[in-house]
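Hi C.,

You asked whether I'd gotten around to modeling the 120-residue construct. I have! Everything is below, sequence then structure, no commentary in between.
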Amino acid sequence: MLDALTVAVSVAALALAAWCGFAAYRDQPTKDWHFIGMAVVTVLALVQLVVGVVQLARGQAAEEGTVIFVAYLLGALCAVPGAGFMSLAERSRWGSATVAAGAVVLAVLEVRLFDIWTVG
């Protein structure tokens, strides 16, 4: 895995979490700009998925196993879009809070992905 990409996804996810958390604090639902931010974070997660699969195809291996690594990559890819779709159903401050929580989940998944790839 590329450490710089993992850091970039984590930082972008935490920035999105702070932005949507601030919107929730101000009693605002998710707006179009939030969805653009979610798209950027999702594209970064998609790039990470592609890089991870390419590295596995080249013969590199995750220390804790390929299946769990790919499962975490797919979970990381789905965390923010899933929260975004839920925020569409809840057009209140809680929609913004849901996206903030989903972005924090993505940041935690990134830490776990790093651990799975490089144990010890």
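If it helps when you're writing up: The chain is about 80% helix and 0% strand.

Thanks,
B.
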